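Q&A log
Question type: sequence-to-structure
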Amino acid sequence: QRWFEPEWAGGWTLCRWTYGLIALGFHLPRMQWLSDAYADQNLLYSRPPLHIPDWWILTPSSAAVLWAVGALALLVIIWGGKLTKPALVLWIVSSTILVAHEGLNWKAYDRLHAWIGIAMLLGPTSQRNLQAKARSPVGRWMMLLIFCSLYGMTGWTKALQPGWWTGEILAYHLVDMHFGHQPLGIWLSGMPGVTQAMAVGTLAFEALFPFAILSRRTNPWVLAIGTLFHLSLIVVMNVGPFSIVTLCAYPVL
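Response status: OK
Response body:
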């Protein structure tokens, strides 16, 4: 029973603000690419798990409506109040349908942002003044489940590959044409000792996260290391808004 006792809920407010603002940052620019990326009748991709283009082919008009619904929902989420959770549902559904039409380009930050939104549906996100309130931790447990899965699976999978222990795989990632090519990352890729230390540190953080995050004693340290980890990703790799999408959930974790 102690696992579900009410706990301080102030982190949800910061999570809600950053969640909405970060999403606006990558959603608003989509307006200029609606016809080319989301509603091109000559480029239709259907991919698992939803296969949405099999039953709904977007036109430029319907894509614009979905985009507008998503933008309005994000503004409501940032504002807060009783409409926050309906707005979360609208945002998750409209953005998922829109992004599904990107086909082969369904990005990791889009998927993670939707999962964080689902966890927010279980949290007290529709309430104000949470800094002075204690609420059910069910939403936080859902967020923990998502991030323990995220870090655990990536860390344990990397640990099975010898190239991660030597740093060789990371060195190649730093110069990858899609996810690398940052000046600092290119420079670091030529230093085997540094890339090995970075790779082993990544393995340790990701593989141990599901265990260390659950302890009140190690929780703040894990989140501090995670913050540095994701901030460093921004300067050494080209992963788009993935890192800041991840960090918006940290106040809840």
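Response note: The longest strand covers residues 7-8.
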